[in-house]
Amino acid sequence: MSAVSLRGVTKRYGDTRAVDDVSFDLHENRIHGLLGRNGAGKSTAMRMLTGQEVPTSGQIRVFGENPYENADVLHQVCFIKESQRYPDIFLARHALEAAAMVFPNWDQGFAERLIEEFRLPVKQRVRKLSRGQLSSVGVIIGLAARAPVTLFDEPYLGLDAVARQAFYDHLIADYAEHPRTIVLSTHLIDEVADIIEDVTVIDRGRIVMDDSSENLRSQAVTVSGPTKAVEQFSDGHEVLHREDLGGFTRVLVSGVPTDRETASLQVEPVSLQQLVVRTTQFHDAALAGAGNGNGKGVRS
Amino acid sequence: MTPAQLVKVARIQLVNARMVLGLPLLVLACVLAANIVIFMAIQMPGEPAITGALVSVYIVTLVTHIQTMTQMFPFALGISVTRRDFVAAAGLVVVGQALLYGVIIWVMALIEGATGGWGLGLAMFDLPFLQESNVVTQVLVYAGPFLLLSFAGLWAGIVFHRWGQLGVWVLGLALGALLVGLMALVGSQGWWQQVFDFFAETPTLLMFAGYPTLIAAILAAATYATSRRAVP
């Protein structure tokens, strides 16, 4: 069942289409990765599905209802964004106290453990917090709110590696006990690759990939070997990326042809990050109308 | 929107009540102290003195409510509060605050009377043009301008939040043009005498509580309408 659905959603700002005819679902009680380059439209999509922006056209449903100005739905939704600003008069604890009032599932004990772990100085003025400390305010709210739909948009700018790992660990552990629909939007794809169960990649406002990460990873491989053998192997499949060196070729091909001859070839699995990056480049090249020198965007 | 929800969102706006409600009063206390010191220094003995320093608390309240919309509003939307709930709760806070401050100023006026104008014959609260004969109307007379200025602050704040400095300038110029237009109309029609009579004859209660409340209601509606498409 899907907790959130977007159907033909477009958001225009003047002449630019930040989000262009996008349709996808966020399945209930799964962890989703919403990935894409800067300015791809991820944040705009999340702002629309949390009722903060109104789509130019299309339909958005959260638990079957339009989220815009819908208090019953929105209290089920927690959207943590990197750009969140706090009132100047706030101490760090005021932000947490306010969140505790809004979210019905708020777990104060959990919040206190997180404050301890992230070493957040709660009595400090919000204005005096470092970038990393500001990020932990958001992370703590996002986790302790236990909202049925929780979105993290680049939640950990300025957080050190230990704090990021602590965030992932708590997210997974708490998700196991209190399943909910989680969206992680980040550029650190490698870090979240093992956590996210579904992947949606958005580029130039359009969806270029939307599947479970298991499917995506099983479909794509990197194949290297003599050019001729590699070309035979990948024939009829989508070559997302190709590198040539002398008579030697290496391709990233999706839609794995399992029954093909692989004796002279080296076949390796593809990391999610590679797959996302190459798919995005492939999509960009196709839009530009021609392949670029490095990643030959051609269907073989 | 249930009353419980409204109170909850109002409590979010007051999560740092010490700053929201306390700051204007702190400013008022400082201004009173400053006035006492100044009048001790300059006053000619036996001469009554009136200060307009009370206006400071009204101005500070206006500024805090500009910030309600430029800072608290985007934060509240960020934690899943709807615009409607936020604006309604802000209205609740403003009305409560206006009445609270009205009572405080009434008490200050009593103290002023009892101490012979802070021992100096100084009138800062018990101003001649604001005097009412009973407690309720007296408090309302003090509260009315708070309502007006607070809602003006809320509207200016949301206009600034949506359209930035340019929006506030355009709004200010438009209101200025409207005022000039009205004055031109009054001048060309020879209505000045009636205007002066209006200000002279309107009862204090209507002037400082009735009309301000009416205008505040219009500003509240404008704030709500402007917030509908505002993004955090």
From TrEMBL, chain A:
InterPro entries: AAA+_ATPase, ABC_transporter-like_ATP-bd, ABC_Transporter_VariousFunc, P-loop_NTPase. GO terms for molecular function: ATP binding. PROSITE patterns: ABC_TRANSPORTER_2. SMART domains: AAA. Keywords: ATP-binding, Nucleotide-binding, Transport. Residues 4-229 form the ABC transporter domain. This is ABC transporter ATP-binding protein. It comes from Prauserella halophila. The lineage of its organism: Bacteria, Bacillati, Actinomycetota, Actinomycetes, Pseudonocardiales.
UniProtKB/TrEMBL annotation, chain B:
The chain crosses the membrane at residues 20-42, 86-111, 139-159, 166-185, 205-226. Keywords: Membrane, Transmembrane, Transmembrane helix. It comes from the Bacteria. This is ABC transporter permease. It comes from Prauserella halophila.
